[in-house]
UniProtKB/TrEMBL annotation:
Listed GO biological process terms: ether lipid biosynthetic process
Predominant subcellular localization, coarse grouping: other
Name listed for the protein in its UniProt record: Alkylglycerone-phosphate synthase
Co-factor(s): FAD
Keyword terms of this UniProt record: FAD, Flavoprotein, Lipid biosynthesis, Lipid metabolism, Peroxisome, Transferase
Organism of this sequence: Euplotes crassus
Length: 528
């Protein structure tokens, strides 16, 4: 029996080697229980910097090296690190704007708790003892358990800073293959253990919140070590990809094959393919590439009653219901998605940013309605109201060149004094055009001509770039606000055109009323 066990371990190592990752030989000898009989973390494929705890913030959003801070010397707000266009820069106007317009008191600091008190885990020994190295890593670490017990809505972040979750996962298992997942699901089923799949943990729907009355052992199945592109079929422009891959890694890897996916939710740097499918995600360039449901062609999902996979190369089948549609948006309730076949596209020949300013939100929405009707759609088009426009302007970083500063002043003078736009009512639209040069040229001509009909004015690519940069740092800004006693959250809604005005008005009204009733002090900032 011993020899058989040893042989099995060797085979597992071989399997991991075939999967192409460096194997940590010593840990494969480790037992799940230490000499004192306590369960211990085992990593069969340890690689430095691989663990999310190494680089992701524990009490908030994003990379550890990136945050909005107050610069000691100037007292201005700046962004640390070097990952983003404006990293390492100060935003000279932001502090004054935040203090005067939204009433943040920058000098008031809200100190977060040192560490959350994590409840001890519940173990199902039969399950754990039968696992038999069918994983890449297993962890009982408290911080890792905490990180896998939440998503990223404000309530989650508030608990991370000041409170405690009702229930924590009891251990985190990282499978390395569909076979691992099948074995883990089978054992969990046999031993009455709960599995919660985990991708990037970025959901904003409390999809990872655990019920406090759950007495069974809960496992977080972290899929991020299943992150390989299995094949790319250029003839049919499809690719088979493991579900744990994180968006930005996926983009980088697909580039090597000269193809793109085009699905880019704002959480792209941290969310996973499996998460996108499970939450039916929408990307900022969906006009060109489609939403996730338009991109997915086949899904492999391991369920308690077996593995479902149905893939044929035909782009469409007419008989029978489309089972993929049941899986899309199922938030981990039906099983564990392990891989899928996606439609990929040629790398676009052209990518052009743009922006337009409108005298008021009403003109902007009317313009958007016409773009919708026209079916001539830029890859991405976003309209923001006056408050959000002011917010974006306040976040403008200092310029490296004196000439640029002078030029900016002239532009501002032109827009406000000559064109007569009012800073207190104007709004902006940001654009990305992607495709062949011919197509993007045509789109730009159409869009800017149409904008003129609604008194819009072309405002240049820099504002477009800044607008899209903001989408990547918005959650960092939320954390900055939290540091100064200000809570912030964003909601996304899909709404028919004829209800749009009402929705904007009613949401604002509801938030103001609620804040009033709850005695919230200071200015309540609601923008869309
Ligand atoms: C700053 C920010 C920006 C965002 N921008 C967007 C956006 O532009 N568009 C958008 O649609 N959403 C956006 N979101 C929400 C979120 O990023 C998406 O819902 C994303 O798809 C979640 O993916 P994830 O990998 O983080 O999933 P997780 O949060 O890890 O999981 C979400 C749910 O899916 C399940 N799940 C995860 N992986 C699997 C799997 N392999 N098999 C089965 N079930 C699984 C989990 O159990 C859970 O129920 C944003 C969130 C933040 C914080």
């Amino acid at each position: 029996a011993n020899m058989q066990k040893q042989a099995l371990r060797r085979l597992k190592l071989l399997e991991h080697q075939i999967l192409g990752i460096k194997v940590n030989n010593t840990s494969s000898q480790q037992k799940l229980k230490d000499d004192n009989g306590n369960y211990q973390t085992i990593d069969l494929l340890y690689r430095e910097g691989r663990n999310k705890l190494d680089w992701f913030k524990e009490k908030g959003w994003g990379f550890k090296d990136t945050e909005f801070v107050i610069d000691d010397k100037t007292g201005k707000v700046g962004l640390t690190g070097d990952r983003y266009v404006f990293s390492g820069k100060l935003m000279p106007d932001f502090r004054t704007w935040a203090e005067s317009k939204i009433g943040i008191d920058i000098d008031k600091i809200a100190v977060a708790q040192k560490a959350m008190d994590v409840d001890p885990p519940t173990f199902n020994e039969e399950f754990l003892d039968s696992l038999d190295y069918n994983f890449s890593r297993i962890s009982f670490d408290d911080k890792e358990r905490m990180m896998h017990s939440h998503g990223h809505c404000l309530q989650d972040v508030f608990s991370l800073r000041y409170g405690k979750f009702k229930r924590f996962v009891d251990c985190v298992i990282y499978p390395g293959s569909t076979k691992h997942v099948q074995k883990i699901v089978e054992l969990a089923n046999e031993n009455n253990v709960v599995i919660v799949p985990y991708g990037g943990g970025t959901n904003v729907t409390q999809a990872l919140e655990l019920p406090d009355d759950e007495t069974r052992m809960i496992i977080s199945l972290d899929m991020t070590r299943m992150n390989k592109i299995k094949w790319v079929d250029r003839a049919n422009m499809t690719a088979c990809i493991e579900s744990g891959i994180i968006g930005s890694d996926l983009n980088r890897e697909l580039e090597k094959y000269d193809v793109v996916l085009g699905h880019e939710p704002d959480s792209l740097e941290f969310s996973s393919l499996g998460g996108w499918i499970s939450t039916k995600a929408s990307g900022m360039k969906k006009n060109e590439y489609g939403n996730i449901e338009d991109i997915v062609q086949a899904i492999t999902i391991v369920t308690p009653t077996g593995t479902f996979e149905r893939y044929n190369q035909c782009p469409r089948v007419s008989h029978g219901p489309e089972l993929n549609h049941f899986i899309l948006g199922s938030e981990g309730n039906l099983g564990v998605i392990t891989e899928c076949v996606l439609r990929v596209r040629e790398v676009p020949e052209a990518k052009v940013y743009g922006s337009i300013v409108f005298p008021d939100f009403d003109s902007g929405t009317k313009f958007m309605r016409e773009v919708g009707r026209s079916k001539i759609w830029p890859a991405s088009i976003r309209l923001v109201d006056n408050l959000q426009f002011q917010f974006a302007v306040a976040l403008k970083p200092e310029s490296d060149s004196r000439w640029q500063t002078i030029l900016d002043k002239i532009k501002k003078f032109y827009v406000l004094k000559i064109k007569g736009f009012d800073q207190e009512s104007m709004c902006a639209c940001t654009l990305v055009f992607e495709g062949t040069k011919e197509k993007t040229d045509k789109q730009q001509t159409f869009i800017y001509k149409l904008a003129k009909e609604y008194h819009g004015m072309k405002a240049g690519p820099e504002n477009g770039i800044r607008g899209y940069f903001l989408t990547f740092v918005i959650a960092y800004l939320r954390d900055f606000a939290c540091n100064h006693n200000y809570i912030a959250e964003s909601f996304e809604a899909s709404v028919p055109w004829d209800k749009m005005d009402k929705l904007c008005y009613n949401v604002k009204d509801r938030v103001y009323a609620s804040a009033r009733n709850k005695g919230v002090q200071g200015f309540v900032f609601v923008s869309c």
